[in-house]
């Protein structure tokens, strides 16, 4: 296969043109084009025939069996030709039926035999109605004892015979072909030669049979002495009418004369399609492989065309037939490809509505520039809404008015357009503060409504600026576009980005695509953080936590890859995986006597449909676990899409027996309102409130939260227990359950089983 990246564009296009041409030529689709080329050759050159072959056209319907006198007249003509000293006579007439007067056939047969060894009668071969080749023979009464030659018609797409065989088979015998016999040449069966039509047909000696019977012996000797005579139908009288270049309907016998003259003049050289293809293809490949500027390359194309036309003309006048189809098609396909590319580039480099240069043109300009200027991309906010409100005829005016404003302040600035709402330019300022000051001025200008057709249009604009030294034009544009996408009209209207793309950046960009395979390969797995009774240290619950151990990067931060799952739309897939594994392990723990509750995090982003309900039901049903043993912890409550709808959804989960927990209580939207409005069974106090208990205020807030839960009959779990003093204080204020690194790090399931077995053994010893 052709490696597109490793080949220059023009070389790749020549290779494609060559491949397509080869396929078309092999399928014989280009044959008609070759024949048109041969027609041109036939009309460009004219050559006088040898004059050694004389044609005699029989005016009468001599093949008619009801007219025996016509055959007798033909016998007299053969006798007169013999008397005139003709060297050979070929009878290219078909007598399929014997004459009503057998004596007429015998007379003709005798006249031919008397002529000697150089008298021949033809066996006709040609296509029938279905295209199959059939043989037509004259009656044996005439052909008995005579030599025979084959007259085989091979019509082409244009109805012209372009080639003839040297020999032909008939009834198991090999017969010389009529043209080859007249030229005095021989060839193997199956071998063919081209027929040249450059001969002047008006100079081929031709006579009518009726006139010859009346000529004197002197006239006959002068016309036929030492000549080869072909007797056939007269002009337009032969039932085998054919076409030759430059003439329409002529007797087919003239095709055989042209073929014989071709052999006599040694014009059987034939440059087939592969010769022209190889010559044209490699010359074109050589031309595009050399580094040239566009003007010189176009001159090279012209020289190549002149060379090919010159070779074609030279071959024509030398009498050699040239197949031009492959040469023409290689050039046409290549030229068509180049024109298509130029059209695409023109279309890509220029916005068709405003005629502004596009970001593709910007990329080309950046690639060719030697100096490095900061790249600014502006985003017009509300652009599509304005276009929707304006009539289509005014879209161009609106965009150009935006460009006018963006162009202010920097002389000679070129504005590049991309999808209408993004515009870019190269800043003449190189200092960040100078660029910011200029953009602040533009932003102030855009704060004034734009007047169009008497209507004031509000326009918001933000800017992304790329200020790195990256040599890649495409990376610079992508960096600026990424920067402008992070901007905000209200908070940060301009963002500068001077960072370089690193392998870590590329890895991050491809992370989302690897999430599914990581799940399948077991790279994403579940660990469990124990939840302990603060009063007596018993294991009362587990929180399922997801981890990713990448073969390349090692352990990846859960917060990071969970965020990527949300962006990639794979959060439900990840949650289903964790929930199914956690419920499966809860079933296993129950089977070995570990009677604890299993908690699983559910992102608030999944509460926009009934998918969570189905997911939870499927998990407990699959592993035969009671729903009340599973606690669903609601995280990221700030992203609850609809509080009323979420309330109904959680009510359904609660009615099915699942326990519900409010994670990170006391921080952000995990507040008292949500605790009040949503049917939670548990609240988990955020580690913010257990982090520092050295002052009275913090201890009082933590104590009030524990009291709130107890008084509201809601289970309380304290997170972030990192030391003994925190544990002792929580025990002192009556917090029932806690978790944190002081109690235990997240553990795999087997470690949980071992811990529980150890705790039981220790408890039995104390008892």
In short:
With 767 residues, the chain is α/β, with parallel strands linked by helices.
Structure description:
The protein has about 775 residues and is an alpha/beta fold. It folds into 4 domains: about 5-45 and about 270-345, no CATH class; about 50-265, no CATH class; about 355-500, 2-Layer Sandwich (Alpha-Beta Plaits); about 525-765, EAL domain (TIM Barrel, Alpha-Beta Barrel). It is built from 26 helices and 31 strands. Strand 30, helix 25 (about 725-735) and strand 31 (about 735-740) form a beta-alpha-beta unit. Helix 3 packs parallel to helix 4, helix 10 (about 275-290) packs parallel to helix 12 and helix 20 (about 570-590) packs parallel to helix 21. The two termini are about 80 Å apart.
List the helices and strands and how they pair.
Blueprint: H1 9-26, H2 31-44, E1 53-58, H3 68-83, E2 88-91, H4 102-115, E3 119-127, E4 133-136, H5 140-143, E5 147-152, E6 163-165, E7 167-170, E8 173-176, H6 178-183, E9 192-194, E10 206-208, H7 209-212, H8 217-224, E11 228-233, E12 241-244, E13 247-251, H9 253-264, E14 270-271, H10 273-289, H11 294-317, E15 321-322, H12 325-349, H13 359-368, E16 375-381, H14 383-389, H15 395-407, E17 416-418, E18 422-426, H16 432-446, E19 450-452, E20 455-457, E21 460-466, H17 473-485, E22 494-497, H18 503-521, E23 524-533, E24 539-550, E25 554-556, H19 558-567, H20 571-591, E26 597-603, H21 611-623, E27 630-635, H22 643-655, E28 659-665, H23 672-677, E29 682-685, H24 696-711, E30 715-718, H25 724-733, E31 737-738, H26 749-766
Parallel strand pairs: 1-10, 1-11, 2-3, 2-11, 3-5, 14-15, 21-22, 24-26, 26-27, 27-28, 28-29, 29-30, 30-31
Antiparallel strand pairs: 3-4, 6-9, 7-8, 12-13, 16-18, 16-21, 17-18, 19-20, 23-24, 23-31, 24-25
């Amino acid at each position: 296969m052709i490696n597109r990246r490793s080949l220059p564009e023009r070389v790749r296009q020549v290779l494609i043109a060559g491949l397509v041409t080869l396929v078309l030529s092999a399928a014989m689709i280009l044959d008609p084009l070759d024949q048109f080329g041969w027609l041109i050759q036939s009309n460009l050159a004219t050559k006088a025939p040898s004059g050694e072959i004389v044609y005699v056209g029989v005016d009468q319907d001599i093949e008619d069996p009801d007219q025996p006198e016509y055959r007798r007249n033909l016998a007299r003509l053969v006798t007169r030709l013999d008397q005139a000293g003709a060297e050979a006579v070929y009878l290219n007439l078909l007598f399929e039926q014997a004459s009503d007067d057998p004596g007429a056939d015998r007379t003709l047969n005798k006249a031919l035999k008397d002529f000697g060894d150089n008298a021949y009668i033809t066996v006709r071969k040609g296509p029938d109605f279905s295209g199959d080749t059939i043989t037509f023979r004259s009656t044996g009464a005439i052909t008995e004892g005579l030599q025979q030659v084959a007259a085989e018609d091979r019509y082409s797409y244009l109805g012209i015979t372009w080639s003839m065989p040297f020999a032909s088979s008939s009834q198991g015998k090999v017969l010389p072909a009529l043209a080859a016999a007249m030229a005095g040449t021989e060839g193997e069966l199956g071998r063919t030669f081209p027929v040249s039509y450059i001969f002047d047909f008006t100079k081929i000696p031709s006579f009518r049979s009726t006139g010859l019977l009346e000529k004197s012996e002197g006239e006959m000797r002068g016309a036929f002495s030492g000549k080869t005579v072909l007797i056939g139908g007269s002009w337009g009288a032969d039932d085998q009418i054919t076409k030759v270049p430059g003439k329409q309907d002529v007797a087919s016998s003239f095709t055989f004369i042209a073929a014989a003259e071709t052999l006599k003049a040694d014009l059987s050289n034939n440059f087939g399609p592969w010769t022209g293809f190889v010559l044209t293809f490699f010359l074109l490949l050589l031309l595009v492989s050399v580094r040239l500027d566009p003007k010189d390359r176009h001159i090279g194309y012209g020289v190549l065309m002149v060379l090919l036309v010159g070779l074609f003309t030279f071959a024509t006048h030398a009498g050699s037939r040239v197949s031009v189809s492959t040469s023409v098609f290689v050039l046409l396909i290549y030229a068509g490809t180049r024109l298509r590319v130029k059209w695409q580039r023109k279309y890509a480099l220029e916005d068709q509505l405003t005629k502004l240069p596009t970001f593709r043109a910007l990329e080309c300009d950046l690639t060719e520039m030697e100096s490095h200027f900061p790249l600014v991309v502006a985003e017009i906010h509300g652009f599509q809404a304005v276009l929707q409100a304006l009539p289509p005829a005014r879209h161009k005016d609106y965009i150009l008015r935006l460009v006018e404003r963006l162009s202010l302040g920097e002389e000679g600035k070129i504005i590049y357009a991309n999808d209408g709402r993004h515009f870019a330019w190269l800043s003449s300022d190189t200092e960040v503060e100078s660029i910011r000051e200029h953009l602040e001025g533009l932003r102030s200008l855009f704060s004034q409504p734009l007047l169009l057709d008497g209507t004031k249009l509000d326009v918001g604009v933000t800017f992304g600026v790329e200020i790195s030294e990256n040599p890649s034009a495409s990376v610079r544009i992508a960096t600026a576009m990424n920067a402008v996408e992070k901007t905000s009209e209200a908070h940060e209207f301009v963002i500068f980005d001077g960072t370089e793309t690193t392998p870590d950046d590329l890895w991050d960009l491809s992370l989302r695509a690897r999430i599914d395979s990581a799940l399948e390969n077991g790279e994403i797995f579940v660990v469990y953080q124990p939840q302990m009774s603060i009063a007596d240290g018993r294991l009362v619950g587990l929180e399922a936590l997801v981890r990713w151990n990448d073969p390349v990067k090692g352990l990846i931060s859960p917060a990071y890859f969970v965020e990527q799952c949300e962006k990639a739309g794979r959060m439900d897939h990840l949650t289903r995986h964790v929930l199914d594994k956690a419920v499966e392990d809860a079933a296993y723990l129950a089977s070995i006597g570990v009677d604890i509750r299993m908690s699983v995090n559910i992102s608030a982003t999944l509460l926009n449909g009934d998918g969570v309900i189905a997911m939870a039901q499927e998990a407990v049903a699959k592993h035969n676990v009671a729903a009340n043993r599973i606690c669903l912890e609601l995280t990221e409550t700030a992203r609850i899409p609809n509080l009323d709808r979420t309330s109904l959804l959680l009510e359904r989960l609660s009615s099915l027996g699942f326990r519900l927990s409010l994670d990170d209580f006391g921080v952000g939207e995990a507040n008292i309102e949500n605790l009040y409005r949503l049917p939670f069974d548990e609240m988990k106090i955020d580690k913010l409130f257990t982090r520092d208990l050295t002052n009275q205020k913090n201890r009082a807030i933590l104590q009030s939260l524990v009291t709130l839960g107890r008084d509201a009959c809601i289970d309380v779990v304290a997170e972030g227990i990192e030391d003994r003093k925190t544990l002792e204080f929580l025990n002192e204020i009556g917090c029932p359950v806690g978790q944190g690194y002081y109690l235990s790090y997240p553990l795999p399931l087997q470690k949980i089983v071992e811990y529980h077995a150890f705790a039981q053994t220790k408890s039995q010893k104390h008892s």
